[in-house]
Design brief:
Pfam families: TetR_C_10, TetR_N. It comes from Larkinella punicea. This is TetR/AcrR family transcriptional regulator. GO terms for molecular function: DNA binding. The protein is mostly helical. It contains nine helices and no strands. α1 crosses α4 and α5 packs across α6. It is elongated and about 60 Å long.
Length: 194
C-alpha cells in the first residue's frame, strides 16, 4: 500500500476531524498535528482553513462523480438511469459514510458560497443533464429543474440518514433503496408518460 502524500494526508485527517468536531471545532493545528505535519506545511498546501475545507469538498465530490459516471449505465430508459443514479449514490454514501456526511455538512455551511461557479457546474453537469433531458422529454413533471433535483437529492439524504441511524441490515438495504426510489419516481415523474 502506498503512503499518502502530504496534501492527501492533510485532507484525510481533516475529513475525520471535521466529521467529529465540525468545521469551527477543528483547529488547523489539530489537523496538522494528527496528519503528522507542521502548521507551516499545512498552510503551504492550503493557505487558509476555508481553502482546506473547500479543497476537501471538491476532492470528495470529484470521487463521488467519478464513481457515479462509472456506475450509471448510459443505456436503458430514463427511469433506469434515474434508478441507477439513486441507487449508486446511496451505495457510495453507505460505503463512504464520513465523506457523505461531510458533503451534507458542507452544503449547510457558509463554505458552499466559496466554491467557484465553474466548479459547481462541473460537479452537477451529469445530474443536471439527466434531469434536463428528462424534463424536456416530458418524462418528469413540468416543475423547475432545480426543484426536481432538490426533491430527489433530499430523498437520498433522508434515506441515508434512515439507513445509518436505524442500522438496517445489509440484506434489507437494497429493498429500502428500491422502495424509496419508487416513491421518489412517483413524486417527480410525469404521470401522463409511460
Amino acid at each position: 500500500m502506498s503512503k499518502l502524500n502530504k496534501p492527501e494526508k492533510i485532507l484525510s485527517t481533516a475529513l475525520k476531524l471535521f466529521v467529529v468536531y465540525g468545521f469551527h471545532g477543528t483547529p488547523t493545528s489539530k489537523i496538522a498535528s494528527e496528519a503528522g505535519v507542521s502548521n507551516g506545511t499545512l498552510f503551504h498546501y492550503f493557505k487558509t482553513k476555508d481553502e482546506l475545507v473547500v479543497a476537501l469538498y471538491t476532492a470528495i465530490k470529484g470521487e463521488l462523480n467519478q464513481y457515479l459516471a462509472e456506475k450509471v449505465n448510459e443505456t436503458g430508459d430514463v427511469k433506469e438511469k434515474f434508478r441507477n443514479l439513486f441507487r449508486y449514490s446511496l451505495e457510495w454514501a453507505l460505503e463512504n459514510r464520513d465523506a457523505f456526511y461531510f458533503i451534507q455538512q458542507f452544503h449547510f455551511s457558509p463554505h458552499l458560497g466559496l466554491v467557484p461557479d465553474e466548479e459547481i457546474r462541473k460537479q452537477s453537469e451529469m445530474h443536471r443533464t439527466l434531469f434536463q433531458d428528462a424534463r424536456d422529454g416530458k418524462v418528469l413533471k413540468p416543475l423547475p429543474l432545480d426543484l426536481l433535483i432538490i426533491l430527489s437529492v433530499n430523498q437520498i439524504n433522508g434515506l441515508f440518514q434512515y439507513l445509518t441511524a436505524q442500522t438496517v441490515p445489509i440484506e434489507n438495504q437494497q429493498q429500502r433503496i428500491n422502495d424509496v426510489f419508487e416513491l421518489t419516481w412517483t413524486m417527480i415523474a410525469n404521470p401522463e408518460k409511460p
